[in-house]
Write a structure and sequence with these properties.
The protein is mostly helical. It contains 15 helices and two strands. It is about 70% helix and about 0% strand. A two-stranded antiparallel ribbon has the order 1-2. The two termini are about 15 Å apart.
Length: about 290
């Protein structure tokens, strides 16, 4: 394991411990489903972005943990719903049964429904100025909604309407990219970064968000479930429009590398040590899971 992978592992352990504390533990079916969905592994990319951004600003570790945990709860809610029979109908997530397979569909829906408001409840406890807190809540609410994850998800459901790379980029930037961008923006607000610095991070987030999704499309084709933790070829089996289906696998890999390079260029606009964020862009397009 490289030094950078050790760093990622330390962030993952940090957020996993925090998530254990943040989730309800009353042994009810609902709490069990929530905990199962959140604590069953995962890359924790969005919390990692929160932590890396916080390290180039000025913020307490406790506030970063709350923000990182809240964003991961939102992400996990979206994964539960994404896997549902009415959506992608997937059996595996992170190498384990999806929530609706482990429990049942109704419980999975309600677990997702409970995770999202819990995230916003936690955000209200952030130790920050009220105006910053409102800005953080606004950013994440927008990332979840009509022009964010939900808007991207419905485009994904109706992917037969996607005919070009441009429309595919729009879908990915909403479904995946907006919460990635919001992770950077909200951590920048919390960490007292300047508006130009936050804007540069948001642009970086747009690039790595697209790169992340393209790499996911590639992994769906190339990595077996034992490596990826997901059903291999599930996108192709559902006739989904993906980067490889439009431009081919080689061009998709080239595009992901190009986006990573462009993301790193955006970091040059910050007069800060952004080495870890730069390394993360490279990691995103080289991962196999």
């Amino acid at each position: 394991m490289s030094e950078f992978e050790d760093l990622l592992d330390s962030y993952q352990r940090r957020i996993n411990k925090k998530l254990e504390d943040l989730l309800p533990s009353d042994n009810s079916i609902l709490s069990s489903a929530m905990r199962y969905s959140v604590l069953n592994g995962g890359k924790r990319l969005r919390p990692i972005l929160v932590y890396m951004t916080g390290e180039i600003g000025s913020v307490s570790s406790g506030s970063l943990d709350i923000l990182a945990g809240s964003i991961e709860l939102i992400h996990c809610y979206s994964l539960i719903h994404d896997d549902l029979p009415s959506m992608d109908d997937d059996d595996l997530r992170r190498g384990s049964l999806t929530t609706h397979k482990k429990f049942d569909e109704a419980t999975a829906i309600l677990a997702g429904d409970a995770l999202q408001p819990l995230a916003f409840e936690l955000l209200c406890t952030l130790d920050s100025k009220d105006e910053d807190k409102i800005g953080i809540i606004r950013s994440l609410a927008a990332a979840c909604g009509h022009f964010g994850m939900v808007g991207g998800q419905i485009k994904d459901i109706h992917s037969e309407d996607i005919k070009s790379v441009e429309s595919l980029d729009e879908m990915h930037s909403q479904k995946t990219g907006r919460l990635i961008q919001a992770s950077l923006e909200t951590s920048g607000i919390l960490s007292n970064l300047s508006k130009p610095e936050i804007n540069a991070l948001v642009e970086y987030g747009y690039k790595i968000g697209l790169a992340f999704q393209i790499q996911d499309d590639i992994i769906d084709i190339e990595s077996p479930p034992s490596v990826s933790g997901k059903d291999q070829g599930s996108d192709e089996g559902q006739d989904k429009i993906t980067y490889p289906s439009i431009v081919g696998i080689l061009e998709s890999k080239s595009k992901a590398q190009e986006l990573a390079a462009e993301a790193k260029e955006k970091l040059l606009l910050l007069n800060k040590n952004t080495d870890n964020l730069s390394k993360l862009a490279d990691y995103i397009v080289s991962r196999k899971t």
